[in-house]
Every structure is written in structure tokens, then in C-alpha cells.
Write a structure and sequence with these properties.
Structural class: alpha+beta
Oligomer: single chain
Strand content: 35-45%
Number of strands: 7
Largest sheet: 7 strands, antiparallel
Length: about 150
């Protein structure tokens, strides 16, 4: 059995808006990073089953270090997306599953992100990084800019 990290959050925004932030390049460059000075200079999304996600990760100096790449395995707007990571240049034979479920709740949208962990980095480091992603998403969507 593969270990996973699960992050749950309620975001004060409509379900369609939260879902779209996961698949819209203009949104992804604003929130999809783990912080500590990292930047997201570009994002490309083919939003359909079999479509590819490609997001650039740049270090604090602005140099692109690697691409976050994945292939959608599920696409059910606005309820669920799933994708398999395909970051072989970072992790050999990467094929980890990431699922994101969206549920309308009284105070906005509940997001449940679950991902299979990789074995190179400590699980707590991975939990911290992915939690930072969701922190940035929430900040974006709960401010005037979102």
C-alpha cells in the first residue's frame, strides 16, 4: 500500500471558482508553489481526461529549476479532478496519483487533496509543501484579487 498525504480545507469561494483555480493557467501561476521564495513563471493546462498539466517552478532568483507535469485521469467539473504526476526529470518513473475533491458547504467549498507520496523526500516535507500550495490558493481566492 502506498502512503498518502491528505489535506482538507474549506475555502470561502464558490465551488466553480475553486475548481477553476486548479485548471486555469492564469490562476495557477498565482498560487501553485510551495513558498519560501519559489515562483511559478508559467502554466499550461489541457483541461480534459488525457490532457497534460505543465507548471514551471523557479527558484527565488527566477531560474526555472523543473517542471511540474501531470496527466489528467479524471475531470468532472466542479466535483473532482485526478491526475498522475509525470515528473521523470525530478523523480524517476514518477506515476503518483493526486486526487482533488470539491464539495459545496455552507461556508464555501471544501477541498480534499490527497496524493501518493514519493520516497525521496520526507513525508512531512511533502505535507508541508502541498499544504503551502493550498494556503496560497486560499489566500488568492479569499482576497479581492481572487
Amino acid at each position: 500500500m502506498v502512503d498518502t498525504v491528505k489535506i482538507e480545507r474549506v475555502i470561502d469561494a464558490p465551488i466553480e471558482r475553486v475548481f477553476d483555480a486548479f485548471v486555469t493557467p492564469e490562476d495557477l501561476v498565482r498560487w501553485h508553489n510551495a513558498g519560501e521564495g519559489w515562483q511559478t513563471p508559467y502554466a499550461e493546462v489541457d483541461a480534459r481526461v488525457g490532457g497534460k498539466i505543465k507548471i514551471g517552478y523557479a527558484n527565488p532568483e527566477g531560474k526555472v529549476e523543473f517542471d511540474f507535469t501531470a496527466i489528467f485521469t479524471e475531470f468532472d467539473r466542479p466535483k473532482r479532478i485526478a491526475y498522475r504526476l509525470a515528473m521523470e526529470e525530478v523523480i524517476a518513473d514518477d506515476d503518483r496519483l493526486v486526487t482533488v475533491d470539491f464539495t459545496e458547504v455552507e461556508s464555501g467549498t471544501k477541498v480534499v487533496l490527497e496524493l501518493e507520496i514519493e520516497l525521496i523526500n520526507d513525508i512531512e516535507l511533502q505535507r508541508h509543501g502541498w499544504t503551502a500550495h493550498i494556503d496560497h490558493l486560499q489566500l488568492l481566492l479569499e482576497t479581492k484579487e481572487g
